[in-house]
Amino acid sequence: MIIIPVKEGENIERALKRFKRKFEKTGVIKELRERKMFTKPSVKRRATVKKAIYVQGLQRQED
């Protein structure tokens, strides 16, 4: 459970923003979207390899 202590005199919008940021970092929504439909292990592996190739390309461009 996420607990956000609201300081006295603090704006409610600011507290909501902190809550949303903390909630997003937990990865709950991302996990729910992944569980929504089944993806085969081969497809997952292919996606990770594709991402790794993309990141390597970006790193090569920086050098």
Give an overview of the whole structure.
- By secondary structure, the chain is mainly alpha-helical.
- It has one domain (about 10-60).
- About 75% of the residues lie in helices and about 0% in strands.
- It starts with 11 loop residues before the first helix and ends with a helix.
- The model has no long low-confidence stretch (mean pLDDT about 95).
Overview in brief:
This protein has 63 residues and is mainly α. The chain has three helices and no strands.
Kindly list the characteristics that best describe this protein:
73% helix, 63 residues, 3 helices, mainly alpha
Q: Quaternary state, please?
A: single chain
Using only C-alpha atoms, the radius of gyration works out to: 19 Å
Indicate the proportion of strand residues: under 5%
Sheet bearing the most strands, described?
Answer: none
Termini separation:
43 Å
Q: What's the mean pLDDT score?
A: 94
Share of helical residues: over 70%
Overall domain count: 1
Low-confidence stretches: none
- Helix/strand order: HHH
The secondary structure category is: mainly alpha
Number of strands: 0
Give me the number of helical elements. 3
Principal-axis shape equals elongated
